[in-house]
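Notes from the 1:1 (GR / supervisor)

We went over the backlog. Supervisor wanted to see one worked example end to end before approving the batch request, so GR pasted a single chain during the call. The sequence is below; no edits were made to it. Supervisor asked that the structure be written out right there so they could see what the output format looks like.
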Amino acid sequence: MIEIRKIQNGDLEYAMDRAIENEPKMEGFVYDLIDGYTALLDGKIMMVGGIMMKWEGVGEAWAFMTEDVRNNLIESYICLTEMFDVLIKEKQLRRVEASARADFLPGQNMLEHLGFKYEGCKKQHSRDGIDVFIYGKIL
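Structure output shown during the call:
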């Protein structure tokens, strides 16, 4: 059973500790946890995510997925879409943006499956100098 709930203390750390292989760890990065949600499958955390508001109607999505996503691809996709549907409605967005590292193909594929369109590349934008691809979606 899929459950979407407000993020709770420890959810982000749990997801980061069990992140998909090669997903970059973001130690010290401050996320707006008030607007975050946790997606669970049969009581197990699959991912956490949120939207950082840029200005009214425009936000940037973020998510951390656990290794359990690999064994539950269809359910994980449903979790992700339901989680972001809640956030988009709650924030009354007209546009949502997201980014994926150039060396992290699973993140790029996920965004494209969610209907995001590639919009460009920020050269050497990550903390370790990797290019970051920018995606956007008009709602």
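Supervisor's comment: Strands lie at 2-6, 37-41, 44-55, 58-65, 95-101, 117-122, 132-138.
Batch request approved.
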